[in-house]
Structure to design on (115 residues):
C-alpha cells in the first residue's frame, strides 16, 4: 500500500489519527468531515495515497467507481433521502486543501452552512 507519512488522510486510513468512520474495506474508507458543510457530510478516500485527481491513471477506474457507488449506499444508510451533492476539489485552482484524493458527499435538510 502506498502511503505518504506526512499525509493526514493516510494517517486517518492507518488509524493513526481518529475519525468518525462510516465504512471501510481493503480499498476505501469513508468518514465524517471534521468541519461539515451540511447535516451529513462524509468523505470517501482511497486507502492508497493518490495526491489528486490529476494523478489518476486508467488503473484507478474501478477504485473511483467503487467510491461513487459506495457513497450512494452510505447516504441511504445515513438516512439521507432528499438528495446530496458530490464534490471533488483538485489542485490549487480547485481549492484542494488536503493532498490525498477525497470525494465529498453532502446532504440532509437545508439550510447548509455552505454550498
Ligand atoms: P478539500 O478542500 O481538500 O477538498 O477538503 C478537505 C476536507 O477535509 C475539509 O472539508 C476538511 O474539513 C476535512 N478535514 C481536514 N482535516 C480533517 C481531519 O483531520 N479529519 C476529518 N474528519 N476531516 C478533515
Ligand atoms: Zn495520503
Amino acid at each position: 500500500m502506498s502511503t505518504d507519512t506526512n499525509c493526514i488522510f493516510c494517517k486517518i486510513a492507518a488509524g493513526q489519527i481518529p475519525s468518525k468512520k462510516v465504512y471501510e474495506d481493503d480499498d476505501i474508507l469513508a468518514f465524517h468531515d471534521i468541519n461539515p458543510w451540511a447535516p451529513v457530510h462524509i468523505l470517501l478516500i482511497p486507502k492508497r495515497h493518490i495526491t489528486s485527481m490529476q494523478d489518476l491513471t486508467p488503473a484507478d477506474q474501478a477504485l473511483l467507481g467503487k467510491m461513487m457507488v459506495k457513497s450512494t449506499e452510505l447516504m441511504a444508510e445515513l438516512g439521507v433521502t432528499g438528495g446530496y451533492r458530490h464534490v471533488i476539489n483538485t489542485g490549487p485552482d480547485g481549492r484542494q486543501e488536503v493532498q490525498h484524493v477525497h470525494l465529498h458527499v453532502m446532504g440532509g435538510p437545508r439550510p447548509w452552512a455552505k454550498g
Q: What stands out?
A: The pocket of zinc ion (ligand 2) is lined by residues 4, 7, 9-10, 49, 100 (CB under 6 Å). DSSP finds two helices and five strands in the chain. The helical segments are 8-13, 61-77. The mean pLDDT is 97.
